[in-house]
Amino acid sequence: MASKPLTTRVSPAVHExxxxxxxxxxxxxxxxxxxxxxxxxADEDGTPRPPDGELTASVLxxxxxxTAPAAVMxxxxxxxxxxxxxxxxxxxxSAARRLMExxxxxxxxxxxxxxxxxxxxGALLGQLFPGL
Length: 132
Description:
mainly alpha, 6 helices, globular
């Protein structure tokens, strides 16, 4: 994708938060800032996001019963990782591992909350990502 350089100044707290986020995402600070700015502009101008594909739909179906407050965050992380994988974005390979970790954590927390969860999630992810 073609891009243009942008230079900006941020507070030390914002810089620290962006640096930590980049480390968690295993991307550069510039790539992380670019992704966040692009998402903010897309949200602001109403640019539609690409539609979700089969993987994201499968993850959503498998985790739709996840409603426990402690588990919802992990469900959302799993959905975002599925979207990264589908769009073959930067970090798609590490996103596959993080998808499995987030989905597993969401299911574990949901089970602790004694709510029903689709047990096929593990089998689905095992088929999608053998060896992870």
